[in-house]
Prior knowledge:
By secondary structure, the chain is mainly alpha-helical. The chain has helices spanning 2-75, 79-104, 106-117, 123-146, 148-154, 159-171, 173-191, 196-219, 223-250, 266-294, 300-337, 341-368, 381-389, 391-414, 417-442, 446-470, 474-487, 491-497. The longest helix has 74 residues, at 2-75. GO terms for molecular function: antiporter activity; xenobiotic transmembrane transporter activity. It is a multi-pass membrane protein.
Amino acid sequence: MCCDNRSDIELSRESLKMEEKPSEIWKKVMYFSKRKNITKKWWAEFKKVWHIAGPAIITSVSVFSMDLVTAAFVGQLGNIELAAVSEVQNVLIGFVHGIMLGLGSALETLCGQAVGAGEFNMLGIYLQRSWIISIVTALLLTPAYIFSSKILKLLHQDPNISDLAGKYAVWIIPEIFASALNYPTEKFLQAQSKVWFMAFSSMLTLAFHVLLNWIFVTKLGMGLVGAAIAGNISYWILVVAKIIYIVCGWFPEAWTGFSFLAFKSLTKFLKLSIASAVMLCLEVWYYTAVILIVGGLKNAAIAVDSISICMNLQVWTLMVALGFSVSASVRVSNELGAGNPKAAKFTVAVNVLTSAILGVVFSVIILATKSQFPRMFSKQQNVISETSKLGVILALTIFISSIQPVLHGVAIGAGWQFVVAIVNFVCYYGLGLPIGAILGYKFNLGVQGVWSAMLGGSLLQTIILFVIIGRTNWHKETLQAEERVRTFGGQMEIQQGS
């Protein structure tokens, strides 16, 4: 009897196990199915991100290399000529192009969200409005080029170098107007993910720029005038190629010709453009201010050389991050405009994580070669030694810089320019620079003190942006994107203007 009872119990247990197995198997199937779906989702978004980021990186590197090519050819003329061109590039052009890029970045928000909402008919109008604002700004900034020699002398730069830099600045005035047209045109194309044309055209222009410099500077011996002519031609070729691409029928929905509607709602458009310009200029000018602070330290020549070497490396890695910044801006604005809050939130994660991984790789390389990489730029032992000491700070800066521009791209895509401008001002100019000056001068920590404070400001800004993004109601952002497209124009405005 006992045996019968045991056998019955065992049979009941076996039957229970048989009943549980299908449910356990189903749970496993659902688990692996979800993982597979998430993997597919990540892979699909990863491809979309690289489709935009890859060409954007090529474009950034190519355009940045044009200034390096100019400096390389001018360097053959003499140290004074090279110093003059470097001053114009780092101080004047950096200042002006920061403003132009910022003004053009308003299109990243408007065009991107309009594309997501299917309002392609307004893209050409937005582009023309941005052109108008940028060209007027270029006219207002032209005196800065004309009086650049006096401006540089006021900044206590060498008089001989300042005089030569002033002449060169006047010769490259046409570049101001090229940049006024270039940045809005870029944003128009990026918003529609038409980025491969920009990549190919920028690479071809870079090759042509090398040829022009060889002809005018080396072959014809025209010196700085030849370098200026080569630069003017190259930048205008770059701009004209993009404009021809736009107006010659490749964008039948987005470009319907020049219209007087471009002069409508300019005030609202200008407000967003100014907010974008302030946000980006506060970022760009931060690094210029750091160099100016370092320039007043003891052994300033060595300090400036060491920090310049580090910043050159940082700029090259920054080109990669800027590609993901463009990708984040385009993907976020497109998805918000299309009313897809979850997709907008998801693409933020993919862009940030991908760029951060590359930032880790670059940082590890710097740490592994901190005693060797300075030798690529200088043979002076004191400069090599000082630069090596900055290796750890440089690695941390590169990592932060791999994330920071992507968060800026998210902010631009969502239209948070004004908020981020305030964050930038507080973190950089309220904390980073003053603390850097105190550490560098008061506590005699030199370059390391100045840069540590700069890094602290960047880190604080990054943390604040993460908090803002983490607390964002993305559904609310889609509603605001819809309202923004309506406010800045839509089908009704087209009908009223026709």
